[in-house]
Amino acid sequence: CCFKRFYKMWLPIRFMFQLLLKKKLLNQSLTSVLSNGFWLSFRYAIISFVGFFVSVIFARQYPAESYGEFQLIISTMALFSVFSLPGLNMLGIRSIASSGIDYTQKIVRISFLSSLIAVPLLVVYGLYFLNVKENTYLIIGLMSLCFPFLYAPNSWYVFYEGRSQFKLSGLRLILLSFISGMSLVSGILLNFSVLELLSLFLFSNIIIYWLFFFEIRRKSIKIFFFFLMIRRPPRSTLAVTLFPYTTLFRSNNSTDSL
Q1: CB under 8 Å, gap of 24 or more: what pairs does 100-106 form?
Q2: φ/ψ of residue 186, rounded to 5
Q3: Using CA atoms, how far apart are residues 46 and 176, in angstroms rounded to an integer?
Q4: Alpha-carbon torsion angle 55, 56, 58, 63, nearest 10
Q5: First to last CA, the chain
Q6: CA angle 151, 177, 186 (to 5 degrees)
Q7: Looking at 7-16, 63-72, 101-110, which range is the least confident one?
Q8: 3-state secondary structure of 124
């Protein structure tokens, strides 16, 4: 009888604990969604503002022909970016989010090899402008050489967004936007030619993309070795550390004999 009375008293208490636990988990997930949504929206707003600001400065300082030529090159790059297989980024994000397996480096490798297909196509496309405007042909030729190095490492953000770290990817994309935009504005104020402006844009983005890629590559190696380090040796063995991330296991008998 006492047990039944205690059980009846415990039921509502247990129900309240379960309700509070679910509410706490719901609040945590809601906070995560709001935080990630904020950084996602904030980064797009900043990137759009920087792009608009650069376009206004460009349109005020250069004639309409030069502005149109620059926009033609940017549009051509966006058109041929399909050869870099951008859909692999979504597969990489889903893989990290669902199973924790990181394919970022493999995606960059596949994207780089696939982007090589666009190089001869861009050269052939540039031949059309050879008789029309030689400067445009030179610009497209430069773009064809830089194309694989520009779009392949652009998959670095998969490492962060697959782990729902939108703040880290957002801050890096905002930094990239500021550096790229300010370098273009500096070139515009110094009256660079369209070829020089495009070179400044391409090389600044390529350098930053590869820096971000090597950053996540270093983090991936640290994560990999961390899981190696937490693997404990059997109880009957003694771990002798040779290097920071490798261990040699010897039996107690062999160590005693030494």
Answers
A1: 102/159, 102/162, 102/220, 102/223, 103/158, 104/155, 104/156, 104/158, 104/159, 104/216, 104/217, 104/220, 105/217, 105/220
A2: -60, -45
A3: 11
A4: 120
A5: 68
A6: 110
A7: 7-16
A8: helix
Enter the tokens of residue 241: 């550390």
| pLDDT value of position 78 | 85
Owner of token pair 């780089």: 112
pTM of the shown model: 0.69
Kindly list the distances between the CA atom of residue 116 and the CA atoms of 84, 113, 249, in Å, as whole numbers in the listed order: 8, 5, 46
Q: Which helix (H) or strand (E) holds 199?
A: helix 194-229
Residue 78 identity: A
**C-alpha angle 70-76-80 in degrees, rounded to nearest 5:** 150
Name the DSSP class of 62. Answer: S
201 neighbors 144 (Cβ within 8 angstroms): no
